[in-house]
Amino acid sequence: MKNKLSYDVRKIKNITPKVLQAINFEYAGRKTEITAVNNEFSCVCPWSGLPDFAVITVKYVPDTKLIELKSLKLYLQSFRNVGIVHESVVNRILDDSVGCCKPLEMSVEALFNTRGGIVTTVKAEFKK
């Protein structure tokens, strides 16, 4: 009997944007830039099932709401074992985060670790 290597590659539907929570911004009307960095982001290649690791940076200027940081952490963890390409990771995080807190502006940048000799950086932006 041949031993086959298998990977637990989950579908994109396993990403959980509903876990994102917004809280009131006490200083609405004051331009404040917030930067949240996750050094432990992971997902998997949808074709090979091999892991991808990245540093995710979310920067935004809130309007009246903030993203509650624990909910952001739980949301980013929901990408683990999901088969998704780098560009889709960044755009999905941006769309879901904008939907959560409706900021004045936001950017999401991912710096993916070396894979096959290539380091990938992907950035997407939103402006109201």
Topology:
Blueprint lengths: L21 E3 L9 E11 L6 E11 L3 E3 L1 H9 L8 H16 L3 E11 L2 E10 L1
Antiparallel strand pairs: 1-4, 2-3, 3-5, 5-6
Short description:
By secondary structure, the protein is α+β, with helices and mostly antiparallel strands. The chain has a single domain (17-127), classed as GTP cyclohydrolase I, C-terminal domain/NADPH-dependent 7-cyano-7-deazaguanine reductase, N-terminal domain (GTP Cyclohydrolase I, domain 2).
Strand runs, count: 6
* Number of alpha- plus pi-helical segments: 2
Strand arrangement across the biggest beta sheet: 2-3-5-6
CATH class equals: Alpha Beta
- Class per helix and strand makeup: alpha+beta
Poorly predicted regions are none
Gyration radius over CA: 16 Å
Which geometry do the CA atoms define? elongated
Q: Write the CATH fold name.
A: GTP Cyclohydrolase I, domain 2
Give the rounded overall mean pLDDT.
Answer: 94
